[in-house]
Write a structure and sequence with these properties.
Keywords: Coiled coil, Cytoplasm
Subcellular location: Cytoplasm
GO cellular component, one term: membrane
Distance between the termini: 33 Å
GO biological process, one term: membrane organization
Shape: rod-shaped
Largest sheet: none
InterPro entries: AH/BAR_dom_sf, BAR_dom, Endophilin_SH3RF
Strand content: under 5%
Radius of gyration: 31 Å
C-alpha cells in the first residue's frame, strides 16, 4: 500500500542518504558491465553459439565439459595427414609437417589460453554475479522493505496525531 501510494504521489517517501544512493548506483553499474564483459568474453573464447550452450548445460549439470579440438589443432591434423599422403620426404610434405607442427603448438596454446581465461577471469566474474551481487541486491530489497515499513508507520502516526488534534479541537 505504501509503495503504491508513493508511486501515485499520495504518500511521502523517506529519501535515502545521497552517498548510499551513489553506492547503489555504482553497484548496479558494476553488475551491468560485469554481465556484458562476461558474455562478450565467452563469445570471444567460444564463437560457436551451440558449443557455448552445450558448455553451459554441462556446467549447470556439474559435469566436466568434454575437451574440444581447436581449429589450429584440426588444421595441424589435416596438414600432417596430407604430408603423409604426399610423402614426408617431398619438399611439400616436409613443409606441411613443419607448418602442421607449428599449428599444433598454436592450437595447444589456444586451448591453454581458453582454459586459463575461463578459470582466472570468467570464474571471478561469475562468482561476483552469483554471490556478491545477490548479497548486495538482497540487502537493497531488505532496505527498501524496511523503508516502506518506516514510511507506513510515519503515515499512521501522522494520521493518529491529526485525529487526536481534531478530537481535542472538537467539543
Amino acid at each position: 500500500l505504501q509503495f503504491t501510494e508513493e508511486k501515485l504521489g499520495q504518500a511521502e517517501k523517506t529519501e535515502l542518504d545521497a552517498h548510499f544512493e551513489n553506492l547503489l548506483a555504482r553497484a548496479d553499474c558494476t553488475k551491468n558491465w560485469t554481465e556484458k564483459i562476461l558474455r562478450q568474453t565467452e563469445v570471444l573464447l567460444q564463437p560457436n553459439p551451440s558449443a557455448r550452450v552445450e558448455e553451459f548445460l554441462y556446467e549447470k549439470l556439474d559435469r566436466k565439459v568434454p575437451s574440444r579440438v581447436t581449429n589450429g589443432e584440426l588444421l595441424a591434423q589435416y596438414m600432417t595427414e596430407a604430408a603423409n599422403d604426399f610423402g614426408p620426404g617431398t619438399p611439400y610434405g616436409k613443409t606441411l609437417i613443419k607448418v602442421g607442427e607449428t599449428q599444433r603448438r598454436l592450437g595447444a596454446a589456444e586451448r591453454e589460453f581458453i582454459h586459463s581465461a575461463s578459470i582466472n577471469f570468467l570464474t571471478p566474474l561469475r562468482n561476483f554475479l552469483e554471490g556478491d551481487w545477490r548479497t548486495i541486491s538482497g540487502g537493497g530489497r531488505i532496505l527498501q522493505n524496511r523503508r516502506l515499513d518506516l514510511d507506513a508507520c510515519k503515515a499512521r502516526l501522522k494520521k493518529a496525531k491529526a485525529a487526536e488534534a481534531k478530537a481535542a479541537v472538537t467539543p
